[in-house]
């Protein structure tokens, strides 16, 4: 009997190990950035932008399985393959663009986390000596200390549990919203207002799902899993499960914001405006639940962001990802302290965060094009030829990426003009 139990436990552990990259993708994508984009989208436009979420998840699936296959067959990570095939300058350009995305994301996320935390402190407690800069510094020092000591696994698990509870709460709220608003579901899809800042929000939705940094890290994680060609079906299932869960969790957040904010005419301008997205169905606990969820999502998404730049450098050079190297430690601390910029110098963290996600479409066409070229090279893929259907799917993904580049460009122009 003990052997059977042990065998079952081993099977469960192996299953969790096999789907490790999927959990990373979900944990990274469904973070503060995703919550912010979906809440703003639902509050301002109902479900009118749900098509962007659906298409970004659909096309990201093909990118995930393609990057995984390239890594498994070639034995090299994405950036190393890019450097080998296309040269150092263009690969350094891609890494630099991803670094801009990483830093801007950390700036926006910590700004939202600090603002939401301060709102909860001012409403729920009598503490008066804290302010947003102090909260940001405290969270930043906590993350650096966890990285420095290497004791971050349990912390990340705790943060992930808080995010998971918030995600379940959004799913429950979305069901209640549809059931109890007494509104025809067609009314959840209003016509988009012309001349509004919808372009930036669309680019933000796509950017948080089809994140260039997340796709690059997918290659690193697949290599660390030591998957071989016999695991190609496993990585396909892994990619599909991550995108399906990402879509439904994100859609639930959008539906919740539609029912609780859009129908009441509440626009989201500041991070604190989002705190009603779980009420009134979550009751008095909504404020605390949302705050805990945002803090959990924020810190659990900032932490991998701190590691990603050193990972990309190791990826590019083909060296071991040894985070004890002095250079890597310095880079982690530097990126971490970029998060205190908004709390100290001001700004609209919600729109800074959405803008940071809207940067991803600027680099995705190049990444997708390089990926298509590599997948069709015999010297790289050997006998594992890419099928006609996959080439068609990736071609459609490339067209979608170019369209999103156009949308993002218009969104930034509108963002600058309106000065939100």
TrEMBL record:
Q: Which GO terms describe its biological process?
A: iron ion transmembrane transport
Keywords from UniProt, A to Z, are: Membrane, Symport, Transmembrane, Transmembrane helix, Transport
User: Is Membrane one of the keywords UniProt gives this record?
Assistant: yes
Q: Which residues cross the membrane?
A: 21-43, 49-72, 92-114, 126-148, 155-178, 198-221, 242-265, 285-314, 326-345, 351-376, 388-409
Q: Where in the cell is it found?
A: Membrane
This protein's membrane topology, according to the annotation, is: Multi-pass membrane protein
Q: Give the GO cellular component terms, alphabetically.
A: plasma membrane
Which GO MF terms does the UniProt record name? Answer: cadmium ion transmembrane transporter activity; manganese ion transmembrane transporter activity; symporter activity
The protein, known as: Manganese transport protein MntH
